[in-house]
Amino acid sequence: MQPQLVLAAGDPSSTNIWAIANTPFLWFCALGVFAVIFIQTVLYSRAAKVAAPHVDMPARELKESFRAGAVASVGPSLAVVFVAIALLALFGTPAVLVRIGLIGSVSAETGSATISAVTMGASLGGADYTQQVFAVAFMAMSLSGAMWMLATLILTPIMKKGGKSLAKRNPAVMALIPTAALLGAFSALTIAELPKSNVHLILVTVSATTMALCLFLAKALNAKWLKEWALGISIVVAITAGYFLHTAA
Fold first, then answer.
1. Which SS3 state, helix, strand or coil, does residue 37 take?
2. 0.85 exceeded by pTM
3. What does R_g of the chain's alpha carbons equal in angstroms?
4. 146 and 210 co-located in one domain
5. Staple 94 to which of 26, 43, 113, 165, CB 3.0 to 4.6 Å?
6. What is the DSSP string of 66-131?
7. 161-209 confidence digits (pLDDT tens)
8. Residues contacting residue 145 through CB under 8 Å, at least 6 positions apart
9. Is the same domain home to 143 and 234?
10. Domain range spanning residue 217?
């Protein structure tokens, strides 16, 4: 059995993609990505602690900010985990870990992989999904994610200069822009889901109602922890509702 795997690993026409999807090199790349993320987290946390006294930010508020950020990441992380599980059967563990560990869009990168496979006359996960198709699809995904990072690297300093200039001229407008950008981004994502089906419409309504209820209770009960957990709770409730709606359908 082992010689067959060795031969399959060197055969681009073989459909045994696991012979190359779980190679030590890809595992090394995946672990390297998470090592960089861990180092960045430590550096940014230390930088925040150093900068806090200079902006008159008490240590208590700093700890609350760290806790709020950690809790708020639970909800979105669940969505990432579910998507990762779905992609494991197509790309293997190392490739999926590399993709979810970097900036990018799962839908955009999966679309890139699908397009690259179609141009080769194959389909992701199909009978014609060979090692060669896997390699090209994975490269397409990697290039797609790399462009996100390159755009961030180039555009962030430019936008920073523009932000400083605008803050000097009109501080009120600069204070509103980040909030407006977030509202616009999440509104665009939400509106895009509404026309897909009645189930999507119901789930958007359920998640929005859950979020509004959590924020109302947090304010009425003066429970800061509930405000921090609101996003995660709304996502879990929406996922649960989606499961029962899918089962009923």
1. helix
2. no
3. 22
4. no
5. 26
6. HHHHHHHTHHHHHHHHHHHHHHHHHH-HHHHHHHHTSSS-HHHHHHHHHHHHHHTT--TTSTT--H
7. 777 777 777 777 767 777 787 788 778 878 877 888 888 889 889 988 9
8. 99, 102, 103, 104, 109
9. no
10. 170-249
